[in-house]
Amino acid sequence: MSILSEPVITKLRRQHERFSHIPEVVIECTRDLQSIKYRKLLSAFFDTYEKVKEFHGFEHEAKMIKDFELKLLEECLGLTLAEHIERPMRASLAVSFIDEKYRDHFIHSFQDFLTGLLVIDRFYEDFSTWYSTSLNNEINSSIECAWLLTTLFHDHERDFPTITKFVDEEPKLPRRLRDRAKCTQYAKDLSSVYDHLNAGKPLDTWASSNGTSPPSALATLLLDQLDNLNHGVVGAFSLLSYDLQETIHPSLVYSSALAIAFHDRGPREDLLAQHVFPISMRRFPLAALLLYCDAVQEWDRSRLVSEQLVDIKLGQASSKHVIFVIHFGSAHSNKLKAEEFESVDRCICDNPIKLGFESSIIIGQNQ
After folding, report:
1. How far apart are the first and last CA of the chain?
2. How many structural domains comprise the chain?
3. Which of 25, 97, 111, 238, CA to CA, is 20 to 30 A from 89?
């Protein structure tokens, strides 16, 4: 349990007055990145971000982040994906205007991206080796670019019940995912990537197979979750349907898609029952990191949430850990977060780097 110091309280007050969602502690740590290849682009973005004295609503901040995401994707991966980035942003904006309980998924994805970068950078040699030393030699196939793609697209196909109810429509698969033959091949390839990595084989040696063999148990599970509109699996298949693998290294795209397919709670019990989970962080660095970063990011996700990130404890080589210190609005929300982390811990069998959270209190405040 940490006690908030006066400087931390001052930072939180300043964030609140600016109506900003990205904690100052994240910005400070991001400015200290040592190994991330596009760290200068991040620093330039935050130079602009911090000059804004006050964000005029969620839309102002979201559009600034959207423009930067597009710039990163263009300069680092050579991808022009404006339509695919703007669509979820517009959906988030629409829901936030009409539902005060809505938990944001657009800026949230960027927050996941930033927190994961801090972990990767602190233990860069580990993550780049676990991912692929060969692929990491070039920026457009590197671990940080794989992480960029993974986080920015992991929630893009999340259902928005408020909107579907408002327009009196049932949720349904995107049109591009209604070709069953293509989706079956995506499922087979994702299962193939899983088997390849789980056997300890290098990511860069994986290749897609167009065989006629029936879907494996994992592929069948993924297709079932697709039919159930699980947003993680729908997001993974959607990413593959953009055919980015024709432009950038296919192993990067498929490893990102696999992490997206694994991140949601929906299929978790089935993945455990089929012994797909637990996974090793050393063999599945993207998937393991997304599970943790997605679980910890709770601050500023809705108008009704009072959780705040107040500190990040970054360990050294002798003590490999990254602990996010969070001030919770209640003992109940603290308990829920602890239960969520317990669920994530069940999914990972090998944790060479301890990732977790710690709660904080303000002197004189009852939790």
Report:
1. 12
2. 1
3. 25
Dist CA 126 CA 133 (whole Å): 10
Closest CA to 284 of 255, 260, 261: 255
- The Cα 280–Cα 40 span in angstroms is 31
Q: CB–CB of 4/327 below 8 Å?
A: yes
366 found inside a domain: no
Over residues 310-321, the mean pLDDT reads 91
Residues 6+ apart with CB under 8 A from 123: 320, 353
- What are 185's two structure tokens? 């091949």
Average pLDDT of the segment spanning 45-51:
96
Q: What are phi and psi of 326, to 5 degrees?
A: -120, 135
Range of the structural domain that residue 351 is part of: 2-361
Has residue 272 been placed in a domain? yes
Phi first, then psi: what are they for 314, rounded to 5°? -105, 115
Number of CB atoms found within 10 A of residue 336's CB: 13
Q: How many Cβ atoms are within 10 Å of 318's Cβ, its own excluded?
A: 5
Does residue 367 lie within any of the structural domains?
no
Whether the Cβ atoms of residue 338 and residue 362 lie closer than 8 Å to each other: no
Instruction: Tell me the pLDDT tens digit for each residue of 216-244.
Output: 999 999 999 999 999 999 999 999 999 99
Is residue 179, in this structure, part of any structural domain at all? Answer: yes
Instruction: Please state the φ and ψ torsions of residue 308, each to the nearest 5 degrees.
Output: -135, 140
- Chain centroid offset of residue 240 CA: 17
The answer to whether 128 touches 197, Cβ cutoff 8 Å, is: no
